[in-house]
Q: What sequence folds into this?
């Protein structure tokens, strides 16, 4: 998705702006002590101790052939056993085999083989009197870096194909009516009340397995699971306190009822191609649909309501 690539690029630019000044200072220290590895290691360690706010996990120097030139150095320890190992095949050093790296570069995010955490490596060229001596590399755990919020995800329609084996046998199957299908009117009435009057901002209805999952706005990190006997009974409304409909909801209360009505229509329209589950989130306005062919759709509620059954199933 283009929006993901855009955010990744913006995030990388932000990280570079935060790391490049410090890596430049470190590269200058390394240039002064490059010829003596003991002095080089000491200068790197002292720099890390003075700049712990950057929370760098590991620093090491690399020569022009892609071999490690210094010890592995962190604020806590240093490991000289790594000196001389070949790093040239690491993705962020492959450019050394061509025309060299730019003054500063940032690797793609990768999973560290030791910590099993997302990491990123920053590299800065080390130069002395116009001559390139090598590079200084700094590894960072991604969770330790300052990341910005670049806004919300876009709201355009997304269609996602599911299991090919299910699609290939679609016309060999017929819908088995669930217990929920016998009580759809009651289920939709109860869910409509919970969403419009009792603080549920996200609901997913599993028609085929006769259950529903609900997310209350007052406790959004914990969803509630209700089986059929619970969700068809108006008594379940006593579980959730009455609250005002959220002012910042994208979907208005009348639209909620219309969306639930169309869910019911799509569930009953055809015995081969039918709705297996559906969700509604009133805060971001998204409707989610999963059909018997295992195809899924995510679109805005208003756009969803503009489509009749012939759009989904043909004439």
A:
């Amino acid at each position: 998705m283009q929006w993901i690539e855009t955010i990744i690029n913006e995030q990388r630019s932000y990280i570079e702006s935060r790391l490049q000044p410090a890596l430049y200072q470190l590269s200058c220290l390394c240039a002064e002590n490059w010829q003596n590895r003991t002095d080089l290691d000491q200068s790197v360690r002292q720099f890390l101790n003075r700049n712990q706010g950057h929370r760098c996990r590991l620093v090491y120097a690399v020569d022009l052939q892609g071999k490690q030139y210094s010890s592995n150095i962190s604020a806590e320890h240093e490991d000289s056993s790594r000196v001389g190992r070949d790093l040239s095949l690491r993705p962020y050093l492959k450019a050394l085999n061509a025309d060299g790296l730019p003054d500063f570069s940032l690797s793609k995010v990768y999973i560290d083989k030791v910590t099993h955490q997302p990491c990123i490596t920053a590299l800065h060229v080390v130069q002395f009197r116009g001559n390139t001596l090598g590079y200084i590399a700094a590894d960072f755990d991604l969770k330790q870096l300052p990341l910005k919020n670049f806004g919300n995800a876009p709201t355009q329609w997304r269609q996602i194909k599911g299991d090919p084996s299910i699609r290939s046998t679609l016309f060999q199957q017929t819908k088995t009516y669930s217990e929920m299908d016998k009580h759809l009117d009651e289920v939709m009435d109860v869910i409509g009340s919970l969403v419009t009057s009792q603080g549920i901002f996200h609901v997913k209805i599993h028609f085929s397995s006769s259950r529903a999952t609900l997310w209350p706005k007052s406790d959004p990190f914990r969803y509630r699971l209700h089986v059929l006997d619970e969700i068809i009974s108006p008594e379940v409304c006593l579980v959730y306190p009455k609250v005002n409909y959220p002012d910042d909801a994208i979907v208005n209360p009348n639209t909620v009822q219309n969306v639930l009505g169309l869910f019911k229509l799509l569930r009953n329209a055809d015995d081969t191609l039918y709705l297996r589950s559906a969700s509604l989130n009133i805060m971001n306005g998204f409707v989610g649909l999963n059909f018997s062919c295992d195809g899924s759709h995510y679109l805005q509620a208003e756009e969803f309501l503009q489509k009749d059954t012939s759009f989904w199933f043909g004439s």
